[in-house]
Design brief:
With 318 residues, the chain is α/β, with parallel strands linked by helices. 36% of the residues lie in helices and 14% in strands. It is built from 11 helices and 9 strands. It has a 5-stranded parallel beta sheet with strand order 7-6-5-8-9. Helix 2 crosses helix 11, helix 5 packs across helix 6 and helix 5 crosses helix 11. The structure holds phosphoric acid mono(formamide)ester. The site of phosphoric acid mono(formamide)ester has 9 residues, from helix 2.
C-alpha cells in the first residue's frame, strides 16, 4: 500500500531514475484502481474535468499517444493532439516557442515525445504545466517503464530476485534504459544481450550483466523483454542484415525454452515480427504484449491523475 506522504502533485515525469520506490508504489496502486474504470461499461469519471492535456509528438506513435489521449478523456479532461507534421513546427517554429505557445493556451499538462535526448527535461525547465516525457531519443520512456512494471506485478509477486533478460538493440532503446533503471532499483537481476555494436559502452554501470549470446541472457529468465529494432535509427552501419539478426539474436519459441516455463514475453511494440521476435512467439500464451497495451492506459491515467489533482490518492473506485 502506498504511503500517504508520497505525492506526485505538480511533478514532471521525465525518467524513472528520479522516482523513488515509494513513488513507483503509489503509481502502481493508483493504476490498479484506474484499471477498474477500464472494465466498466461507461469508462468515464470526472477527476480531471476542467483540465487540458496537450499531446505534443515530434515522432510517430500509436500506443503512447492514443493511450495518453484515452487516459485523459476517461478522466474527464480535454485532450488536444498536436501532430508536429501538420503544425507550425513545419514552418520552423522552435521547441521553446512551441512549448510557450501551448502553455499560453492554459493547458495543464504537456505529454511530449521528441527525438532528442533531454528535450522533455528542457520543456520542463521552461514550461509551467506538468511535462510528461513520452520518449526522448534514446534516453527515457518512463510511462512505458511503468506499464511494464505494472504488467510484471500482475504476474509476479515482486521484482526481488527475478532474472530479467532484455534482448536486442540496447544502444538506441529508451525503453531499455527506463526498465533497467527501475528493475535494478527494485532488486531484480537484470541481464542484457544483443549485438555488441548495439550495446552502449559502460552499460554495466547501470547494474546489469552484459552477454554476447542471447542464450546466456535467456537461461532461467523470469521475464524476457524483447526490444524493437529501431530501423529508423540504424543509419550508422551498426546493424547486421535482418536475416543475420533474426538468426543470431531473434527470440523464437526454441530459444524461449531456455527461460523458465512461466517466463513472460514482453515487447514495447510495434513488433518487427520475424526479426527480433518470431511470428509465433508474439501470439503465444507466454506473451503479455497486449496486456501491456491495456495497462498502458491505466498507468497513464494514474500519471495524469497523480500529477494534476493535487496528490489526492485514489481509493477503491468500485
Ligand atoms: N511502445 C511505444 O512507445 O509504442 P508507440 O511508439 O506506438 O507509442
Amino acid at each position: 500500500m502506498a504511503k500517504a506522504a508520497v505525492s506526485l502533485s505538480g511533478r514532471d515525469i521525465l525518467d524513472l531514475s528520479s522516482l523513488s520506490v515509494e513513488e513507483y508504489d503509489l503509481i502502481m496502486h493508483t493504476a490498479k484502481e484506474m484499471k477498474k474504470i477500464l472494465k466498466r461499461d461507461i469508462k468515464k469519471v470526472p477527476s480531471l474535468r476542467g483540465k487540458c492535456i496537450v499531446n505534443l509528438f515530434y515522432e510517430n506513435s500509436t500506443r503512447t499517444r492514443t493511450s495518453f489521449e484515452l487516459a485523459g478523456k476517461y478522466l474527464g479532461a480535454d485532450v488536444i493532439n498536436i501532430n508536429t507534421g501538420s503544425s507550425s513546427v513545419k514552418k520552423g517554429e522552435c521547441l521553446k516557442d512551441t512549448i510557450l505557445t501551448v502553455q499560453s493556451m492554459a493547458c495543464d499538462a504537456i505529454v511530449m515525445r521528441h527525438p532528442v535526448e533531454g528535450a522533455a527535461s528542457y520543456a520542463a525547465q521552461i514550461a509551467k504545466p506538468v511535462v510528461i516525457n513520452a520518449g526522448d531519443g534514446c534516453h527515457a520512456h518512463p510511462s512505458q517503464g511503468l506499464l511494464d512494471m505494472f504488467t510484471i506485478l500482475e504476474h509476479k509477486k515482486s521484482f526481488k530476485g527475478l532474472k530479467m533478460a532484455i534482448i536486442g538493440d540496447i544502444l538506441f532503446s529508451r525503453v531499455a534504459r527506463s526498465n533497467i533503471a527501475a528493475w535494478t532499483k527494485l532488486g531484480a537481476d537484470v541481464h542484457v544481450a544483443g549485438p555488441m555494436t548495439l550495446m552502449p559502452r559502460g552499460i554495466e554501470d547501470m547494474g546489469v550483466t552484459v552477454h554476447k549470446r542471447v542464450e546466456d541472457a535467456l537461461e532461467g529468465a523470469d521475464v524476457v523483454d524483447i526490444l524493437r529494432i529501431q530501423l529508423e535509427r540504424q543509419q550508422k552501419g551498426l546493424f547486421p542484415t535482418p536475416r543475420e539478426y533474426a538468426r543470431i539474436f531473434g527470440v523464437n519459441e526454441a530459444r524461449m525454452k531456455l527461460a523458465k516455463p512461466d517466463a513472460l514475453v514482453m515487447h514495447p511494440g510495434p513488433m518487427n515480427r520475424g526479426l527480433e521476435i518470431s511470428w509465433g512467439l508474439g501470439y503465444s500464451d507466454q506473451a503479455v504484449i497486449r496486456e501491456q497495451v491495456t495497462n498502458g492506459v491505466a498507468v497513464r491515467m494514474a500519471l495524469l491523475f497523480l500529477t494534476l489533482t493535487g496528490g489526492k490518492q485514489v481509493e477503491n473506485v468500485d
